[in-house]
Design a protein that fits this description.
Elements lengths: L13 H7 L8 E4 L3 E8 L3 E8 L8 H13 L10 E7 L2 E7 L4 E2 L11 H21 L6 E2 L8 E3 L5 E3 L6 E2 L7 E2 L12 H6 L1 E2 L1 H17 L12 H11 L16 H14 L9 H16 L9 H8 L27
Antiparallel strand pairs: 1-2, 2-3, 3-5, 4-5, 6-8, 7-10, 8-9, 11-12
Helix pairs in contact: 3-5, 3-8, 5-7, 7-8, 7-9
The chain binds adenosine-5'-triphosphate (ATP) and magnesium ion (MG).
GO cellular component, one term: plasma membrane
Keywords: ATP-binding, Kinase, Magnesium, Metal-binding, Nucleotide-binding, Serine/threonine-protein kinase, Transferase
GO molecular function: ATP binding; metal ion binding; protein kinase activity; protein serine/threonine kinase activity; transmembrane receptor protein tyrosine kinase activity
């Protein structure tokens, strides 16, 4: 883990950020999150940027301050096409600001309902995001292995070509040899996406991210956000019931009916459903990537007939469905405090 001293080269002056955002003008404000306001800016050096300004009332040593330091420390270590790029940061005059490459299509949650976003585009977005998470869980090397802890469609950003990138690492946990399971004392995650066992036990594992990602997959399929309950029940319970009753046809985004190849829908919904199972039974992100690749391949295959009656096909295919169980090696319950990532 880099110390803040080693990251000095990432510093951007407050003056440069202020110039780029028209002195943080309201017209430049593009969003508001838990960290504070987000502004679009144009910088001579970096081009179009997104500027996250920590709310002053979150203050020093607050959760926001910890998230600020975690985000810088983590993102400076990651280089992957499906992970958002941190260009720099500013810690000056009591301001704490993160500067990212601007992703022109914004976050995935804003596009869920869009009739213009095709099934193939949706599949590619999910596959990109899954590759980003797979990188964090498996590919980055033991030393930098990371649980994201706040996987949701608002934290998946889209560039001008609809390539997806995982963002918002502030809540992430990492450390040398992050264990497969630990108890978190910090509040984390977002309602609608948090796995049920975390709410009751406080346990976090890579499978917690997998659960949240499964929720995102169903958001993409149904074209609605998971933070809103449906029929007085959490979104994930609603989709689980529909999957089990084989009535998915009635809950998928109406604009997708005509486009989805039934085999693709089968592969996609099956892996999404597996992600929502109990911790041990959920797939790894590696397996999620493989199944999404299959869903994309099935969609591109020209010979498959389109069918409006996916549920009938699902009933036939479900006998052969992807149903392996995945074991997880639990090495113990440990706490990785975020303090200490940086010298104080
Ligand atoms: N790099 C970026 N490029 C373009 N838009 C961005 C970028 N980063 C953030 N945004 C926009 O700003 C909004 C707010 O982002 P932010 O991450 O602060 O909040 P959030 O994701 O809604 O919630 P949380 O605080 O839990 O992450 C996003 O939904 C997105 O639309
Ligand atoms: Mg966010």
């Amino acid at each position: 883990m880099s110390s803040i001293e080693e990251l000095k080269h990432l510093q951007i002056s407050l003056q440069d950020i202020s110039d780029a955002t028209n002195d943080f003008s309201d017209e430049n404000c593009i969003g508001l999150g838990g960290f504070g306001q987000v502004y679009k800016g144009i910088s001579e050096k970096y081009g179009t940027i997104a500027v996250k300004r920590l709310s002053r009332d979150l203050g020093e040593h607050s959760q926001g301050d910890r998230e600020f330091k975690t985000e810088i420390a983590l993102l400076s270590n990651y280089k992957h096409e499906n992970i958002v790029s941190l260009l720099g940061y500013c810690d000056e005059d009591g301001e704490k600001i993160l500067v990212y490459k601007y992703e022109s299509q914004g976050s995935l949650d804003k596009h869920l309902k869009s009739a213009d976003l095709t099934w193939t585009q949706r599949l590619n977005i999910c596959l990109d995001a899954a590759r980003g998470l797979k990188y964090l869980h498996h590919d980055v090397g033991a030393e930098h292995r990371t649980l994201h802890r706040d996987v949701k469609s608002a934290n998946i950003l889209l560039d001008e070509n609809w390539n997806a990138k995982i963002s918002d690492f502030g809540l992430s946990k990492k450390g040398p040899n992050v264990p497969d399971s630990f108890v978190s004392s910090n509040p984390c995650g977002t309602k609608g996406y948090i796995c049920p066992e975390y709410e009751t036990t406080g346990y976090l594992t890579p499978k917690s991210d997998v659960f949240s990602f499964g929720v995102v997959l169903f958001e993409v399929l149904c074209g609605r956000p998971a933070y809103a309950p449906v029929d007085d029940q959490p979104f994930y319970i609603w989709v689980q019931k529909s999957y089990k009753r084989k009535t998915l046809n009635s809950i998928i985004h109406s604009g997708l009916h005509e486009q989805i190849n039934p085999a693709s829908l089968h592969a996609f919904s099956t892996i999404a459903y597996q992600c929502l199972k109990n911790g041990e039974e959920r797939p790894t992100m590696k397996e999620v990537v493989e199944q999404l690749q299959k869903a994309l391949g099935d969609q591109m295959a020209p010979s498959e007939p389109r069918s409006d009656d996916f549920d009938a096909l699902h009933q036939r295919q479900s006998r052969n469905r992807f149903d392996s169980t995945f074991s997880m090696h639990v090495v113990g319950i440990r706490e990785y405090p975020l303090e200490g990532l940086f010298p104080t």
